[in-house]
C-alpha cells in the first residue's frame, strides 16, 4: 500500500491509501520524482573545472609559454590571465570561468571555450552501473 498525505491551507491533514500497483500512483510518483530532480539540478551550482596550463593552452589554441606570459602580467593589466597558484608552476591551475572572463575582456573572435566532455574510463566496466 502507498500512502499519500497532504495538509490543506486550513491545517486539515488528508491521507489516502492506494495499492502500489495502481497506475495513477506510479505515474504521480514518477512525475514528483522528475520534478524534484529538475529542481535540485536547477538549484545546484555548476562546477567550475580547473585546468593545468598545457590543457588550458590547448583549449585556447595558444602555446603554453604564451599562456604563462599572460599569467605573469601585473594584476591591473587587462590581458592578465588570473589563475590559482600551485606549489610550483606545474601545479598552477586555471578555472574555466577565468578563461571565459579572459576571452570576454580581450574580445577574442574565437567561440568561448566549452568544457571538454568526460574522459572515457579504461578497464573493466563497473558492475554497479547498469
Automatic annotation (TrEMBL):
<feature type="compositionally biased region" description="Basic residues">
    <location>
        <begin position="119"/>
        <end position="130"/>
    </location>
</feature>
<feature type="region of interest" description="Disordered">
    <location>
        <begin position="105"/>
        <end position="130"/>
    </location>
</feature>
<protein>
    <recommendedName>
        <fullName>Helix-turn-helix domain-containing protein</fullName>
    </recommendedName>
</protein>
Amino acid at each position: 500500500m502507498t500512502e499519500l498525505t497532504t495538509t490543506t491551507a486550513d491545517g486539515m491533514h488528508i491521507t489516502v491509501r492506494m495499492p502500489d500497483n495502481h497506475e495513477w500512483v506510479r505515474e504521480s510518483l514518477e512525475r514528483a520524482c522528475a520534478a524534484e530532480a529538475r529542481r535540485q539540478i536547477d538549484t545546484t551550482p555548476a562546477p567550475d573545472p580547473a585546468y593545468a596550463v598545457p590543457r588550458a593552452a590547448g583549449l585556447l589554441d595558444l602555446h603554453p609559454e604564451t599562456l604563462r606570459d599572460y599569467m605573469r602580467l601585473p594584476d591591473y593589466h587587462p590581458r592578465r590571465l588570473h589563475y590559482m597558484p600551485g606549489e610550483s608552476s606545474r601545479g598552477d591551475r586555471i578555472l574555466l570561468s577565468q578563461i571565459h572572463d579572459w576571452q570576454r575582456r580581450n574580445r577574442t573572435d574565437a567561440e568561448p571555450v566549452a568544457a571538454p566532455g568526460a574522459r572515457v574510463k579504461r578497464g573493466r566496466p563497473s558492475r554497479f552501473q547498469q
